Amino acid sequence: MKKKQPKTLRSLKFSQELRKNISTILQHQIKDPRISKTVLISDVIVSNDLIYTKIFFTIFEYKNQEKIKITLKGLKNSSKYIRYLLGKSMHLRILPELKFFYDYSLTNGINISNILSNLLRYEKDKK
């Protein structure tokens, strides 16, 4: 899924605050065993009207596709409760709808780094 950055300063600040609060909620208040303890909120993108939110996460078990699917399912099932806790902690009148997506940028970055390392090793061995 392609990320699209918020256009306004207001939505940018709001997304940063959401990211911080969602991270805290996941670490301290969500007890769902499906949600990995190594979940990291990598990005939060809020629509300009602050109604819709895309939350991108990654986990350290990035090679385990089954663990990613289970974590995503747990996050989707917990989204209403997370939204409720956000309302309590941020004192908002209107809360955005939360949609979770796995962020493949960490995985892609590691793969590119491995390819470059292998290429460098190949060039050294060639000489």
TrEMBL record:
Keyword Cytoplasm set for record: yes
Gene Ontology terms: cellular component: cytosol
Chief location bin: cytoplasm
Location(s) in or outside the cell: Cytoplasm
One of the protein's GO biological processes: maturation of SSU-rRNA
Keywords (A to Z) from UniProt: Cytoplasm, Ribosome biogenesis
Stored InterPro entries: KH_dom-like_a/b (IPR015946), RbfA (IPR000238), RbfA_dom_sf (IPR023799)
Gene3D superfamilies documented for this protein: 3.30.300.20
Sample GO molecular function, one term: ribosomal small subunit binding
Organism superkingdom: Bacteria
Classification via Pfam families: RBFA (PF02033)
Similarity field: Belongs to the RbfA family.
Biological role: One of several proteins that assist in the late maturation steps of the functional core of the 30S ribosomal subunit. Associates with free 30S ribosomal subunits (but not with 30S subunits that are part of 70S ribosomes or polysomes). Required for efficient processing of 16S rRNA. May interact with the 5'-terminal helix region of 16S rRNA.
Subunit description: Monomer. Binds 30S ribosomal subunits, but not 50S ribosomal subunits or 70S ribosomes.
Protein name (record): Ribosome-binding factor A
